[in-house]
C-alpha cells in the first residue's frame, strides 16, 4: 500500500512539473507588451499553431485569433482604442500548453497644445467686460481689443501671470456691443469673443 501511494505521489509530482515546464516553455516562446491602448503579442519561430485570446479583467473573451508560426517570429497587434483603459489578459494556447499574461492599458495623454485655450468673458455692465483665463502652462497672454466699426485695434494688453488671471476691461466712450476681443497665449492658442 505504501509503495502504491509513493508511485501515485511521484506520478502526480512529475505530471505537475511537466505541466509547469510546458507553461514555462510557452512563456519562453512568447512575449506581450502594451503601449497605451495597443497590445503586441510576439511569438517565436517554430511555435506552430496557437490561439491568442484577449480577455477582460473578469476573464470574458473579447477577441480570439488562430495563428500559425513557422520559420520566423510573428508579431500580432491589437488596438483596444474603443475599450476603456484598464487591466486585460492575453491568453496564448498551443495544444496542451497555455499561458496568461496580464497587461494594463491606459489613455494616451493629450498634449497641452492640442487643448483649447481656457478663457471666458462676462459682461459686467454696458462698458465693462471681465476676462478670465485659466490653465496656463506658461505665463504670457496677449489681449487685443478691436472696434467692430473699424476693425482696428483700440487696446492691447500683455499679461505675464502664471496659471491664470481675471481682469476687468472698462471703456468710458464705447459700449461693450461695439468691441470684440482676441486672446492669445504664449503657445499660440487663441480665442475670439464677440458681444
TrEMBL record:
<keyword id="KW-0732">Signal</keyword>
<dbReference type="GO" id="GO:0005507">
    <property type="term" value="F:copper ion binding"/>
</dbReference>
<dbReference type="InterPro" id="IPR014755">
    <property type="entry name" value="Cu-Rt/internalin_Ig-like"/>
</dbReference>
<feature type="signal peptide">
    <location>
        <begin position="1"/>
        <end position="19"/>
    </location>
</feature>
<protein>
    <submittedName>
        <fullName>CopC domain-containing protein</fullName>
    </submittedName>
</protein>
<dbReference type="GO" id="GO:0042597">
    <property type="term" value="C:periplasmic space"/>
</dbReference>
<dbReference type="InterPro" id="IPR007348">
    <property type="entry name" value="CopC_dom"/>
</dbReference>
<feature type="domain" description="CopC">
    <location>
        <begin position="23"/>
        <end position="92"/>
    </location>
</feature>
<dbReference type="GO" id="GO:0046688">
    <property type="term" value="P:response to copper ion"/>
</dbReference>
<dbReference type="Pfam" id="PF04234">
    <property type="entry name" value="CopC"/>
</dbReference>
